[in-house]
């Protein structure tokens, strides 16, 4: 629920860069993409490029028309915030 969303810094995000523990930031929101990886139409390898980091730019370059917020609503972890 919204009461459990986290404030995630870039260095926290960086910890989640593994195939079995993958988070990514898109337009200020942090998503746990782990379970979506095997469903991504563009393949796991492409999506893993943004694991542990901000994927906004690559997402916008490949398919800005895809409604990520709707698709990954259940995978929202929190919000990207500056380093403390
Ligand atoms: C295709 C979702 C992140 C690369 C697609 C498609 C969807 C999708 C729905 C099919 C689009 C269509 O056919 O019009 C997502 C979601 C992402 C994500 C929800 C974030 C969690 C990325 C990233 C990259 C990427 C970061 C690049 C590093 C691609 C490519 C295709 C694709 C290359 C085209 C595959 C093809 O048609 O052969 N993605 N994507 N995606 N995605 Fe993603």
The CATH topology is given as Flavocytochrome B2, Chain A, domain 1
What is the CATH first-level class name? Alpha Beta
User: Which blocks of ≥5 consecutive residues have pLDDT under 50?
Assistant: none
Distance between the termini: 24 Å
Total number of beta strands: 5
CATH superfamily: Cytochrome b5-like heme/steroid binding domain
Please state the structural category. alpha+beta
Mean residue pLDDT: 96
The main sheet comes to: 5 strands, mixed
Order of helices and strands: EHEEEHHHE
Do you know the CATH architecture?
A: Roll
Counted up, domains total 1
Shape: globular
Quickly count the helices.
Answer: 4
Provide the list of bound ligands, each named once.
protoporphyrin IX containing FE
Q: What do these coordinates show?
A:
With 84 residues, the protein is an alpha+beta fold. The protein has one domain (2-80): Flavocytochrome B2, Chain A, domain 1 (Roll), CATH 3.10.120. The chain has four helices and five strands. The protein has helices at 10-14, 44-48, 56-63, 68-71; strands at 6-8, 17-18, 21-26, 29-32, 76-80. A five-stranded mixed sheet has the order 1-5-4-3-2. Strand 3 (21-26) and strand 4 form a beta hairpin. The mean pLDDT is 96. Bound molecules: protoporphyrin IX containing FE (HEM). Residues 33, 36, 40-42, 46-47, 49-50, 55, 58-59, 62-63, 66, 68, 71-72 line the site of protoporphyrin IX containing FE (HEM).
């Amino acid at each position: 629920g919204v009461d459990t969303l986290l404030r995630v810094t870039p260095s926290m995000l960086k910890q989640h860069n593994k195939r079995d523990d993958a988070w990514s930031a898109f337009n200020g929101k942090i998503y746990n993409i782990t379970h979506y990886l095997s469903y991504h139409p563009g393949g796991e390898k492409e999506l893993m490029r943004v694991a542990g980091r901000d994927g906004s730019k690559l997402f916008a370059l490949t398919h800005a028309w895809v409604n990520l917020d709707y698709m990954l609503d259940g995978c929202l972890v929190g919000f990207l915030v500056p380093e403390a």
